[in-house]
Amino acid sequence: MTSTHPDPTFQTLLNNHPNLSYEGRQGLVMDGTSLTDIAREHGTPCWVISADTLRQRAHALQDAFRARNLPIHCHFAVKAQDHQACLTVLAHCGFGADVVSGGELRRALAAGIRARDIVFSGIGKTDDELELAIHHQIGQINVESVEELHRINALAQNMQQRARIAFRVNPDIDAQTHSKITTGRAEDKFGIAHDAIPALYRKAQTDMPGVELVGLAVHLGSQMVTAAPFRKGYERIAALVRTLREDGLHVSDIDCGGGLGIAYRNEQAPPPAMLADVIAETLGDLDVQLHVEPGRWLAAPAGVLLARVIDVKDAARRFVIIDAGMNDLVRPAMYDSWHGILPLNEPDTTTEECVDVVGPICESSDIFARQRSLPPLKKGDLVALLDAGAYGTVMSSTYNSRPLAAQVMIEGDRKAIIRRRQTLEELLVQEAVPDWLARP
Questions:
Q1: How many domains does the chain have?
Q2: Whole domain around residue 383: which residue ranges?
Q3: How does it assemble (predicted)?
């Protein structure tokens, strides 16, 4: 969604990121660790994620629900940040996992998350993936279609097991966010139409021995910053629960999904208390086990992408060219997303210039900022792209034969490489030339 408000000032960006500060010669510091030191030691582009920030936000979310005396199971949306180090931090905080592929399911298990704390969502689960989930007896499979329901029932019976499932409801609610991350409208591919649920629920609960149907799930979209769509969606779910119970059907669980947004630019991003209040007011009296699936809200502010200025080009516009590209952070190219940019050396903010910050990829869409007011930057300067901890590394690629960037985790005064920088040799070794093709 395009903003009509001015960009945040340099000081506002800092105020909105309490884990960042400038500390004299250290420059920009994240949770006590100099980002300049990391860039010098590990090169750029380089991802940095803070275990402290991740943990603090996890506890803040849990505290919001405790304040409403609302027991809830939290499942981290692995699609937002799938590194096992991050999953391990959240597992220690008591989080389960929300996964959308067999690969994510295996990652969650490898990180020590218990199978019963895993929820499997997603519209395109293969038979192999479903068998994996059934074999491990995960906590819940969110069923996205009638066809998938029949497949799960048949697979579970063949395996002589019962799969624990919930129906993902499409409530036909507009999440009032970017169209590409809205998932609860009738025209979106996700879930089962809400008016089809009652008849299907009865059939599954009474005629399908391969499934244990426990309740309903809903996910409206991502980067939601107002209460209204949450409330409308959950009110529709509450009405469905009452309808099902009036028909003598059993409902024990409601999966509320995720979607809570953050302040990338100038959004009035709500605290987790808003979500807790809405859930308490709409679903809190139904005597069900509640689940939430946060991703972005937890991980995005915990991560930054470090980059170095390759050159500054003066043409029709002034271009600051950095060594990170859309292959590293694709969100601006894909969604026109806005990310704050801060120099690693504390700048003189009395002088600013209007520039386009661009990457080296051979695509016109490889732009991180258009006509952004920034302190003057020159070749060799280091910058941090903010709020990159979610949908950053997980969406990166090797386009233009650019190896994957290094990833560093920090915690207190400790830092560790959690993914070393890929080499070009490692890219090439994955390829094979057929033996009938002679080398020129």
A1: 2
A2: 10-50+300-428
A3: Homodimer.
Annotated catalytic residue: which of 74, 93, 256, 362?
Answer: 362
Answer yes or no: do 288 and 305 share one domain. no
> Residue 139 annotated as binding?
no
295 labeled part of a ligand binding site:
yes
Q: For position 129, which CATH number holds?
A: 3.20.20.10
Residues 381 and 404 in one domain: yes
Same domain? For 220 and 316 the reply is no
Reply yes or no on whether 86 is catalytic.
no
Is there a binding annotation on residue 233? Answer: no
Residue 380 sits at the vertex; the CA angle it makes with 376 and 383, to the nearest 5 degrees, is 65
Integer Cα distance of 133 and 139 in angstroms: 9
Cα–Cα distance measured from residue 26 to residue 34, given in angstroms and rounded to the nearest whole number? 6
Distance from the Cα of residue 312 to its chain's centroid: 32
Q: Are 337 and 326 in contact (CB under 8 A)?
A: no
* 294 annotated among ligand-binding-site residues: yes
52 contact partners, CB below 8 Å, separation of at least 6: 19, 31, 410, 411, 412
How far apart CA 27 and CA 21 sit, in angstroms, is 8
The structure tokens listed for 89 are 């931090």
* Residue 125 maps to a domain: yes
d(CA 69, CA 429): 55
pTM of the model: 0.93
Joined tokens for residue 364: 């016109």
Q: Indicate the pairing of strand 303-314 with strand 353-358.
A: unpaired
* Residue 248 in tokens: 């003598």
What does the pLDDT look like over 346-377, one tens digit per residue? 888 788 999 999 999 999 999 999 999 999 99
Q: In terms of domains, do 151 and 219 share one?
A: yes
Q: Is residue 101 part of a domain?
A: no
pLDDT digits (tens, 9 = 90+) for 61-74: 999 999 999 999 99
Instruction: Specify whether 129 is located in the same domain as 241.
Output: yes
- Min mean pLDDT across 180-184, 204-208, 394-398 is at 180-184
Please indicate if the annotation marks 335 as binding a ligand: yes
Per-residue CA distances from 270 to 64, 80, 227, 283 (Å):
12, 19, 8, 19
